[in-house]
């Protein structure tokens, strides 16, 4: 069962949201280390549609780490991501490089409050939703906010980068 809180939980993501004065809600749940998918686990624990919960993935686009934020109900289209940022080729980033660059652990990488601001693309399916949920910076903790605020705070642009 997920717990809702209006308070900042103290991760770099929630600290960044609080500092920006952006309204958000945190949702915590007991993370199951055996869960096959962090994102699907979050959607189920929060009792929301998987299309509302977005996962944060890092890809290497022509040698540059790039953040992709896509619904947990789908997968990242690497060709579409490369095209969205004017690149030629994208591959999934090395997990250790993703952790070093963002300051978060795999399964808890948030698009917000990263150690180093990276080029970010949010899937266009976020547009028009009242809110989306993304990792708040650790496994078992999500933050719910308006997609426009997510785009603004990460400096992202919207593009169709998800499949299925």
**Span of the ends, CA to CA:** 27 Å
Q: What is the ordering of alpha helices and beta strands?
A: EHEHEEEHEHEEEHEE
Number of DSSP strands? Answer: 11
**In which order are the strands of the major sheet placed?**
6-3-4-7-10
Give me the number of helical elements: 5
- Low-pLDDT ranges: 1-8
Our Rg estimate from Cα atoms comes to 14 Å
The proportion of residues in beta strands is 25-35%
Summed over residues and divided by their number, the pLDDT gives a mean of 92
Feature tags:
164 residues, alpha+beta, five-stranded mixed sheet, 5 helices, 30% strand, globular
Explain what this protein looks like in three dimensions.
Helices cover 25% and strands 30% of the residues. With 164 residues, the chain is an alpha+beta fold. A 5-stranded mixed β-sheet has the order 6-3-4-7-10. It is globular.
Concise overview:
With 164 residues, this protein is α+β, with helices and mostly antiparallel strands.
Compile the SSE list and pairings.
Blueprint: E1 3-5, H1 12-20, E2 25-28, H2 38-46, E3 54-61, E4 64-71, E5 75-76, H3 78-84, E6 90-92, H4 95-102, E7 119-123, E8 132-138, E9 141-145, H5 147-154, E10 157-159, E11 162-163
Parallel strand pairs: 4-7, 7-10
Antiparallel strand pairs: 1-2, 2-9, 3-4, 3-6, 5-11, 8-9
């Amino acid at each position: 069962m997920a717990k809702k809180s209006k308070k900042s939980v103290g991760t770099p993501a929630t600290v960044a949201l609080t500092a920006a004065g952006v309204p958000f809600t945190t949702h915590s749940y007991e993370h199951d280390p055996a869960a096959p998918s962090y994102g699907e686990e979050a959607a189920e624990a929060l009792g929301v549609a998987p299309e509302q919960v977005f996962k944060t993935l890092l890809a290497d686009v022509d040698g540059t780490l790039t953040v992709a934020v896509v619904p947990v109900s789908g997968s990242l289209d690497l060709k579409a991501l490369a095209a969205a940022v004017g690149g030629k080729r994208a591959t999934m980033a090395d997990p250790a490089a993703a952790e070093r660059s963002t300051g978060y652990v795999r399964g808890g990488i948030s698009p917000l409050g990263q150690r180093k601001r990276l080029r970010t693309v949010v899937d266009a399916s976020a547009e028009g939703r009242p809110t989306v949920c993304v990792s708040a910076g650790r496994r078992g903790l999500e933050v719910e906010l308006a997609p426009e605020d997510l785009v603004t705070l990460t400096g992202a642009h919207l593009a169709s980068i998800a499949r299925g």
